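Allow me, if you will, to draw on your knowledge of protein folds for a short while. I have a record of one protein: its chain in single-letter code and its fold written as discrete structure tokens. Could you please explain, in whatever detail you think fit, how the structure tokens follow from the sequence? The record follows directly beneath this note:
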Amino acid sequence: MKIPKTRTGSFFPSLLAPRRRIDVALHAVVMQACVEGVSTRKVDDLVAALGVESGISRSEVSRICAGLDADVAAWRSRDLGEQPFPYVFLDTTYCKARVNRRVVSRAVVIATGVAADGRREVLGVDVGDSENEVFWTDFLRSLRDRGLGGVQLVISDSHRGLTNAIGTVLAGAVWQRCRVHFMRNVLARTTKGQAEMVAAAIRTVFAQPTTDTVRDAREDITAFADFPQAHWRKIWSTNTLERLNNEVKRRTDVVGIFPDDPSLLRLAACVLIEAHDEWQVSDRRYLSEASMALLTPPAPTALPTRNTDPGEVIDNPTALTV
């Protein structure tokens, strides 16, 4: 069985002796249990069930979990400048963690992107206060500083401060308000008797066949109409992130309340790295490379020129031929 290698130190806690097959297997189970969202209290029971009567302490589990941090840090700081990402999706899911000895709701912010070749990547993840503009600005700047560029459309919910951060950090990109979140927000303020009528009216906006007819609606929920029609259904909402959000929640719900932000970030990042790697080896592209090429206008054709004698007088300069 292959195990991760480190340049310095070891992944093995002092409790386990390296090179013994059972110890390697146990180590892998503990690591995987942490990734799967099993709390440190339950890890001790898991180890005992595997036949290690002495169990494993919380400090040992923490040491094992810390072994994941180097990989997480490397992934979160990797270069994004190899190709442009015309489409960027931002979404948030919420978990409980302790901050200043209080249990509070923390936002796990996830960014994904569609690259110029049509493939998806998980661009980044962070934990903080989703309503804080400084947090959003710092998060987007971290992506930009890692090379994120060529962004034409950002799709997200209307978190307070997020739209301002987009305008500041990703100047030139258009913002598309997620239609699903928009629908939920509208229906939450609508009486039951009118809900179906309002929902039907909103759906007709997104069912329009052309850009002009779509534009009868408010601009921030119809920004998708300026992009290739073949992309519309995949760029007018953050539904592409729902599966990721659900998987993060499924894993984190097992823990319940995280002791701090770093432990929450570690687990969420491991879940996202797994999804990111699956996208990279998949044969399917999220959007076809041919349709993505429509986002890049062809380079202008240079006007033909002719070498002339310095003493030659051209009566009609517009009549030059090659």
Q: What stands out?
A: Confidence is low (pLDDT under 50) at residues 1-19, 313-322.
